[in-house]
What we know:
A: mainly alpha, four-stranded parallel sheet, 7 strands, 44% helix, B: Fumarate Reductase Cytochrome B subunit, two-stranded antiparallel sheet, 2 strands, 62% helix, 4% strand, elongated
Amino acid sequence: xxxxxxxxxxxxxxxxxxxxxxxxxxxxxxxxxxxxxxxxxxxxxxxxxxxxxxxxxxxxxxxxxxxxxxxxxxxxxxxxxxxxxxxxxxxxxxxxxxxxxxxxxxxxxxxxxxxxxxxxxxxxxxxxxxxxxxxxxxxxxxxxxxxxxxxxxxxxxxxxxxxxxxxxxxxxxxxxxxxxxxxxxxxxxxxxxxxxxxxxxxxxxxxxxxxxxxxxxxxxxxxxxxxxxxxxxxxxxxxxxxxxxxxxxxxxxxxxxxxxxxxxxxxxxxxxxxxxxxxxxxxxxxxxxxxxxxxxxxxxxxxxxxxxxxxxxxxxxxxxxxxxxxxxxxxxxxxxxxxxxxxxxxxxxxxxxxxxxxxxxxxxxxxxxxxxxxxxxxxxxxxxxxxxxxxxxxxxxxxxxxxxxxxxxxxxxxxxxxxxxxxxxxxxxxxxxxxxxxxxxxxxxxxxxxxxxxxxxxxxxxxxxxxxxxxxxxxxxxxxxxxxxxxxxxxxxxxxxxxxxxxxxxxxxxxxxxxxxxxxxxxxxxxxxxxxxxxxxxx
Amino acid sequence: xxxxxxxxxxxxxxxxxxxxxxxxxxxxxxxxxxxxxxxxxxxxxxxxxxxxxxxxxxxxxxxxxxxxxxxxxxxxxxxxxxxxxxxxxxxxxxxxxxxxxxxxxxxxxxxxxxxxxxxxxxxxxxxxxxxxxxxxxxxxxxxxxxxxxxxxxxxxxxxxxxxxxxxxxxxxxxxxxxxxxxxxxxxxxxxxxxxxxxxxxxxxxxxxxxxxxxxxxxxxxxxxxxxxxxxxxxxxxxxxxxxxxxxxxxxxxxxxxxxxxxxxxxxxxxxxxxxxxxxxxxxxxxxxxxxxxxxxxxxxxxxxxxxxxxxxxxxxxxxxxxxxxxxxxxxxx
Lengths: 539, 333
């Protein structure tokens, strides 16, 4: 963390009182630390995004195409005709303000344009001006304004300052979904070549190599091999990690960070140990080596282009069904979009656990099961042996990731697994968990270093709730099932709740899982000594 | 400023009606012609609006879920907040539309020293909104007594329940008091909370003042300055039977009635062009009116189109050498 970052007490000097000036007369300022840099034109070109060029948000001239207004207004018209969500959400907001203090970015910054209602008004004002009778006739009195470069810059700033977490939508009497509005505006910005690099480059990487990090197949094989070695060192058991194996029963897809980043990596070790212990007939794929989908943060079309690999690969390998790892936005795509955009998956079978015989009826069309559903079912049927005391050095809380919580409702499975694999579990306050959960502040492609101040502001509510259970119950780890959480919450915790680490649910499974033929376990998957084994291991 | 502007608009409307009620010709305009125009604009406007919404398809099934989804048989799912069946969706929508379920969740975030964030329960908006909307609906139903003969039993029932306490003469309707209290709360909430004042448009104040004006003139007529109810009913029946009354009947009605009916007419005309269309839109919101059965049943996007993808063959062509070196299986050697 850089030295010029203000201390938490300073950053928390937040006023929720809005400025005196009307929001329409308050142009956006690009202050270092609060926005993301523009897309690398080479990446944009690789995936055929329009108008690739070198430009920077803090520069005056964004080198927009000549007819940029026409492009955007036509794009808006097109989307109004394609998405009922957009048309309805543009018309029915009554500005009741219920959403205002629900956004983590508003809570952490006090910037009124981070109130979801006002974020939407940034677009709605233009919609009124060009698409409604009242706005055309009455103009500003009706809340309408022209699309100017200033408005465009405001859009770029604030719609890349929304993590599409949908918390506001839970409280909205009409279910107005700011994530949907943000997705639309990001699509519009893309039409004139305005994108951020943290979305565009992962998208280009994923399109080319199969994963966001741009890891080529041999690199992918190497990292799995490395994990297998490490797991053997920790447990004494040699596991298999088959790749691109035709005829396997199950294709397993995880977010790429699981095999290339920490603390995700310990979750990967957990998966590998579990699959070995139950003798799962499965395969990884180097082609579909990414469950995550940064296309979701770009456009519906890009999401579809990236997601295509999963079903295509399942078909090529001839598997029966697909199992998916711990990730948040990945599951938004898999649960709410995949079947529609790349289905029907009629070449697959309705998922059935080979161990328990449970048929996952809830996935009978999409044919993709979440690993926590799969594991909870295993535990329920006593198919694995667990020693929860191996997690006794952890005092645990659980962070519901936005998408599994508010785009699926995957709430009980992870809790069931945690309770069966750990002895010390403490919930954060009820207004900060389940469907009311707070975002990490870095989702939807905003998790860059250049945006760190805004991320920490957005992470403040989550950090605050974690600090509460740290102080009250001595919590020292926050578990989650999201790759972006695992990548970005460590910084949030270091800042707002020092001493709270970040881990995955299947990391705890891996710790507690008793493997046949394992050596005496002295440490957990991180190499941290177990309670009572301090000083005995070769740490 | 926007509040003052909106108040001024409504005051001007009142003055127009007040002046107009002074001449017989204008009375006909206010009592017959404008109400017909208002009705037509409202009906055509709302139908147009709903058709416009409905013509935009729902490409993706994206409910915002609250509570546990339907998954394993031994895990209890939240049937109303996260419905996976049509019946559940109907339940969720009914809770939303009749009880304002989502507003009931409302919390108030506060930042205290520490820094510590707290989220207290905050039900005032829910209560104010619920009282306002239900009062409005009951008053609306009560008014059918002017347009019908004989008066249907559900109208009489609403009227009897509303006057349940039998206080005052004429009997005081509870909703008359409640709607004024709720409107006052909703207005002052908007004016006094700096955040809300900041986001409020003229279009947020106009309905409050307009409906406030309608309620006040209604209350004045019922409890204070009497008007000729028989003549009013003749006018109303005349309107719905398309045989409007003449100057004789219109002449018997006090001028405050013309303010009342003019404001109602303006409200009807204003309705389809304003945020009040949430009356229809709330039924059509795709984040609430779809079942979370995404992985159970396929949803079809009507405008789906093929996209450029990176096929396995292209991918293997690009990486064949490194894959071979790493010992990974290949489709083509």
